[in-house]
Design brief:
heterotrimer, A alpha/beta (about 350), B mainly alpha (about 425), C mainly alpha (about 425), A: about 350 residues, alpha/beta, D-Maltodextrin-Binding Protein, domain 2, 2 domains, 15 helices, B: about 425 residues, mainly alpha, two-stranded antiparallel ribbon, 16 helices, about 70% helix, globular
Chain lengths: ~350, ~425, ~425
């Protein structure tokens, strides 16, 4: 369907209405691109470079899904969303999936009618303060000025935490991470609070990271994951199992380096064989090609590679695996088996 | 003879004026130190200019053009012995990202398309802007421009704009035939209906059919790839273009004697003018899809353009209403006395004059809308301001503030200032023509 | 002799609805109305269908659920347990605060700049032209974030005030602290205050002290006006004007002083305690940045309006005034400006409206106005886009219409009465 997007859009209803009833998977295949909602910019998770190519940990998930469905990791339209627009964009069908460090909560799942397909990053809300303040616990923060990023669960957690501990604070709501960082560095707020990953990412880019400490308290559980609309289970399965494939691949030792060799022919490990499509018909069950998982993993590597490449210890963000290690290493990543 | 004369017989040589009233000193006295208050003001002004430049220039003079990241900038400044927060600007970010700030994510091999479209805008506006210096044939560029410009920007097959243009041809043809048979009102209705049917139901199949025969397509570029200044200009130009006819209709409706029509127009105009643009953008980003029939999906830039069009049409209506009100009543009466009906009088007498008077207002409307396009960054679109956030989210440029804002401010200033100057020139020219 | 024949009585035919101009306008209006209603019905129908598929039922019950978030600048009592509707009210008040403050300062700056732009002082008039052009031609959103960045980056943080070798110090005898979090100024306090009374079933409280002060001030000004009127009438009658300026000042100041003493008035000074200054009134830098940026931006437009207004006053007026021996700045104040006002007021109204609407950009700096609370965090947390955005638009519409009503009333009063 090669129609000018502009005038095509003007020929409204009649044509467009036809395609909507089909599943998202069919839509994506027919369109030839995946519309993936990401943040407007967060170091390590999603940001465009000088050539307009998006890169980051969340972006990697989008690319993996595109590779699994379309066989082309570049066939993704990245749609920057804000805290305000992300859910509407997903609900209205403007994007097929949202990978924008979104916390899986009860009300978002049940009331807003979204389906979280899994967790790609286990996070929690923390506090960062300048070391010179000598603060060692978040409970010492009585009367402090706290920078918060709005549009997230952060402000609710913060209100709850300070109320539960009976201490007062002065909230400074801020739209973007870049501005929050600016205010915090200039001393316009004493504390910066957001997800611990975001704190680490922000701290890593400071001129002098050592002058700032992240307090030990983690005041909330923030399981961040990609999500899709309620009610389209086929599509939900595709995204869920693509994520699982990336995680499983790390557990099974399948990397972007050895995947070509491993997927040539069936090996000794039956689960790897099933994952890579050399045995069984898992891809067909999903409605995808047999090498879907191979494509997904080849796109940006397995979960571990994505992590290390975008937010791991050797990147400017410098996050350690922590909770996000495989269950075999004492972390929380534990995928259901591929069979 | 010893004559004593008290009357000079020859003229004295003309004296040079006192040193304090001519030359630099005289100018200074007349213009800067004419009295105590003025002297104080001068000194205050000089001092503030000086302190601004004193703070700004050392910062701006900073050999960091080649730097590839903020830390490199810091290293360069460090090696020069300049330390501290305001030691120097980091111009590397502008070198690295200026193309992106202009074109967003538009594919680089197609940059000529928006550039051409931009210059075509001037060609299309030439009959209005430089009326006396342009050949009459240029009007065809203006007529075709609304169809060529989207095709250049969005790409796709050439048949789409052609078929869209054919819709007007169909409309005019139907109008002519039906008018001849049944009168102009029926003609108008039939023409609108026929054109609407053409666009809604026939156009897409015709254009894909024609494209099947002969492709003639440019690579399509989806509007999500628009960004930076180009996005601002696109939203601004398209919205102003569409809002002009809408604004005319609204202005006429507001002036009309038909009570209900007038009430509807006034209601619409006052509603739009009473709410901030940002709320309309929220509607575009969160609600417009809910208002449309299930399954319709405009992309976000389309929705923003729709809301921006509605927004500026209300302001446009007010500008044109001003133009209509400025016309002497005799013009209306003259039209009536010639036996012209309402639409003929509007088309031949009223509108050409009213629009001409309104041009400066329309230009300043455009400047306002163009500046307001920065608000789309609030709903996550990557206009220059939105891009600055995205750029600062990159590990290399995290922490850059002034250089980006300064560059963006300069971009807007250049555009808006030149348009404002032009509008002032036009205003002067029109005034002499009118009085 | 001609006879006047009755025109033949036409019977109404259906085609007259179109061809007869008497009925045609009616037809067009009915068609327009039907078209409009169909459009509205179509939109509502679409919305209902879409919301049903999304499983959302539009209702406003969420407004009475606890908001769960905190707001820093609140003119009424508010905690995170207060309902969303209260957060919205706080937001509306904050919008009004910024709008009123902005309009006042924008007018003052605008008038000064507009007059100075016509100054004969070359450098001053050029400087003002540069100011006007820079501010008018750069988007206001950019100015807002720019001002915020300047405040944050150039002013000292509260911790700079601490310790023995503090790099910053408080101004005016330790009573004002200018920090990059905002400005702390002394606040008026009453040791024998009258307390507050709850109104509207306890939804908010009104300070009786403030009410008393306002009442005394109004009474004082009224008395002062009466004294002036009496002086005027004596002047009319005798030709000599009694010296009353001290009486007029006393009429305002003395009762106020007595009241303040009775209430035990004192100033609470800000003090650096813990992380922040405490005590005193705290103007947050989000408020200051927004206020400054909006005032300066709008003032640039107002300056142009004022300049145009002054230029519109005929030169003969100035010359006539000069011939009467009036001094130049009095000519401006007494002759030119009052006449220029008639030209200035109408565009001024629309600039006030613009400023109020532009205050919705507060979210860029985290000022919690109605866009930040109701259409910001409340929308995010409840996911009720339709209700919050529509309610927000309605509120802005109400504010705008009230401003234009008031200003139009003022404009009509000022209009030259033509007989």
């Amino acid at each position: 369907m090669k129609k000018s997007v502009f005038l095509g859009a003007l020929t409204v209803a009649g044509i467009a209405a036809g395609g909507a009833s089909a599943g998202t998977l069919d839509d994506v295949v027919a369109r030839g691109t995946l519309n993936c909602g990401v943040t407007t910019g967060l170091v390590g998770f999603a940001a465009p470079d000088a050539n307009g190519v998006w890169d980051g940990f969340d972006v990697g998930i989008c690319r993996a899904v595109a590779a699994a469905v379309l066989g082309d990791s570049q066939a993704v339209e990245f749609i920057p969303t804000t805290g305000k627009t992300r859910f509407t964009a997903l609900a209205s069908g403007e994007i097929d999936m949202l990978a924008r460090n979104t916390t899986w909560t009860f009300s978002r799942d049940v009331d807003l009618k979204f389906e979280f397909v899994g967790v790609n990053y286990y996070d929690g809300q923390g506090f960062m303060v300048p070391a010179e303040l000598g603060v060692t616990s978040a409970k010492d923060l009585d009367g402090a000025t706290v920078c918060i990023q709005t549009g997230t669960t952060t402000e609710l957690n913060l209100a709850d935490f300070f109320r539960a501990n009976g201490i007062s604070y002065e909230p400074v709501p801020i739209e973007t991470n870049a501005e929050a960082q600016q205010q915090y560095l200039a001393g316009a707020c004493d504390v910066y609070t957001t997800d611990a990953s975001g704190l680490a990412a922000t701290r890593a880019t400071f001129e002098d990271p050592g002058a700032h400490v992240v307090l030990p308290e983690i005041i909330s559980k923030e399981p961040l994951g990609p999500l899709v609309r309620h009610g389209d289970n086929e599509w939900g399965d595709v995204v869920r199992w693509t994520l699982n494939a990336l995680i499983s691949a790390e557990e099974l030792g399948v990397t972007s380096a050895n995947i070509g060799e491993m997927s040539m022919e069936a090996g000794n490990n039956p689960e790897i064989n099933r994952l890579l499509g050399t045995e069984g018909n898992l891809g067909e069950m999903l409605g995808l090609s047999a090498d879907w998982a191979k494509n997904a993993i080849a796109a940006g590597g397995n979960y571990g590679e994505l992590f290390e490449g975008n937010i791991g210890e050797n990147t400017p963000v410098g996050l350690s695996r922590g909770l996000n290690a495989q269950w075999t290493d004492g972390g929380l990543l534990y995928t259901p088996p591929f069979r | 003879m010893n004559e004593v004369s008290f009357v000079r017989t020859e003229m004295l040589e003309q004296e040079a004026p006192p040193a304090s009233t001519v030359g630099v000193i005289g100018w200074l006295r007349a213009n800067l130190f004419s009295n105590a208050l003025n002297s104080v003001l001068t000194i205050i002004a000089l001092f503030s200019v000086f302190s601004l430049l004193y703070g700004f220039l050392p910062w701006a003079y900073s050999p960091t053009w080649a730097a590839a990241s903020l830390s490199e900038c810091r290293d360069i400044l460090h090696s020069l012995g300049r330390e501290g927060h305001f030691s120097g600007a980091c111009w590397g970010v502008v070198r690295d990202r200026w193309v992106q700030l202009l074109f967003g994510f538009y594919p680089s091999e197609h940059y000529w398309r928006p550039v051409l479209a931009f210059f075509l805008t001037f060609a299309a506006l030439a009959p209005v802007l430089f009326a006396e210096k342009t050949p009459a044939k240029m009007i065809w560029v203006s007529v075709l421009y609304p169809f060529v410009m989207p095709w250049l920007l969005w790409g796709g097959t050439v048949w789409t704009p052609v078929v869209a243009l054919l819709g007007f041809v169909v409309g005019i043809y139907v109008y002519r035939t039906v008018t001849a048979a049944m009168g102009s009102l029926f003609g108008l209705i039939a023409a609108v209906v026929a054109a609407a049917i053409w666009w809604l139901f026939i156009a897409s199949s015709v254009s894909s059919g024609l494209a099947g025969i002969l492709e003639l397509a440019m690579e399509p570029v989806s509007s999500r790839q628009f960004g930076g200044l180009m996005l601002s200009l696109t939203i601004g130009i398209v919205a102003i273009g569409f809002s002009l006819p809408l604004g005319i209709v609204l202005a006429l409706g507001r002036q009309s004697d038909l009570l209900i029509v007038k009430a509807l127009c006034v209601g619409f105009i006052e509603f739009i003018r009473g709410v901030p643009l940002i709320t309309l953008l929220f509607v575009a980003s969160t609600l417009l899809n809910i208002f449309m029939p299930p399954g319709t999906n405009f992309d976000i830039i389309m929705r923003v353009i729709i809301m921006a069009t509605l927004f500026s049409s209300a302001y446009m209506a007010e500008v044109i209403r001003g133009g209509l009100a400025a016309l002497p009543k005799g013009q209306y009466e003259g039209g009536d006395s010639l036996g012209l009906n309402y639409w003929q009088a509007q088309r031949l007498i009223i509108m050409p004059q009213a629009l001409k008077i309104s041009i400066p207002g329309i230009v300043s409307n455009f400047i306002g809308l163009f500046k307001d396009t920065t608000l789309v960054s609030v709903i996550g679109l990557l206009d220059p301001l939105g891009l600055s956030t995205a750029i600062r989210a990159n590990a290399e440029w995290n922490g850059v503030v002034w250089e980006l804002y300064g560059f963006i401010a300069l971009l807007f200033f250049v555009f808006c200032f030149s348009m404002a100057r032009y509008s002032m020139y036009l205003e002067r020219k029109l005034q002499t023509g009118h009085k | 002799m001609t006879t006047l024949t009755e025109p033949p009585k036409e019977t109404f035919r259906l085609s007259m609805l179109i061809y007869d101009t008497r009925y045609r306008s009616l037809t067009i209006q009915v068609v327009a109305l039907i078209g409009f209603l169909v459009l509205i019905g179509w939109l509502i129908n679409n919305t209902m269908t879409n919301l049903e598929t999304l499983g959302k039922e539009p209702n406003f019950r969420f407004l009475w659920e606890p908001a769960g978030y905190d707001i820093n600048q609140r003119l009424l009592d508010y905690t995170s347990q207060s309902p969303h509707i209260r957060a919205a009210v706080i937001g509306v008040l904050n919008t009004l605060v910024i709008a009123v403050m902005g309009c006042i300062t924008a007018t003052i700056i605008g008038v000064i700049v507009g007059v100075l732009r016509l100054s004969k002082n070359w450098i001053v008039s050029r400087l003002m032209a540069v100011y006007v052009e820079t501010f008018r031609n750069v988007p206001v959103l950019l100015w807002i974030v720019f001002t915020m960045a300047i405040l944050i980056e150039t002013l000292p943080a509260p911790r700079a005030f601490r310790g023995d070798n503090a790099t910053a110090s408080m101004l005016l005898d330790n009573s004002v602290a200018i920090t990059n979090r905002g400005v702390y100024i002394p606040e008026p306090l009453f040791s024998r205050g009258l307390g507050d009374i709850p109104v509207f079933w306890g939804t908010f409280e009104i300070s009786l002290d403030l009410m008393a002060v306002i009442a005394v001030l109004i009474a004082g000004f009224y008395a002062s006006k009466r004294i002036r009127m009496r002086a005027d009438s004596i002047q009319e009658a005798t030709g000599e004007r009694p010296t009353v300026w001290y009486q007029r000042i006393a009429a305002v100041v003395v009762p106020l002083g007595v009241l303040l003493y009775a209430l035990g008035f004192y100033l609470g000074y800000p003090e650096l305690k813990g992380f922040n200054f405490t005590g005193g009134t705290y103007l947050r830098n989000s408020l200051i940045a927004l206020w400054l940026a909006l005032s300066l931006y709008t003032a640039a437009f107002i300056a142009e309006i004022v300049r145009a207004g002054i230029l519109a006053v005929s030169h003969g007026q100035t010359e006539a005034a000069a011939a009467l021996g009036i001094r130049p700045n009095r000519i401006m104040r007494l002759v030119v400006l009052p006449q220029a006002m008639r030209v200035i007021i109408p565009p001024l109204i629309s600039n006030y409206l613009n400023l109020t609407k532009n205050s919705s950009l507060a979210i860029a700096v985290g000022y919690m106005d109605i866009t930040g609370t109701l259409m910001g965090i409340t929308l995010n947390q409840t996911g009720r886009e339709l209700e919050t955005v529509l309610l927000g638009m309605l509120i802005y519409l109400t504010i705008s219409l009230s401003i234009s009503t008031v200003m139009n009333w003022y404009n009509n009063r000022l209009k030259l009465v033509e007989r």
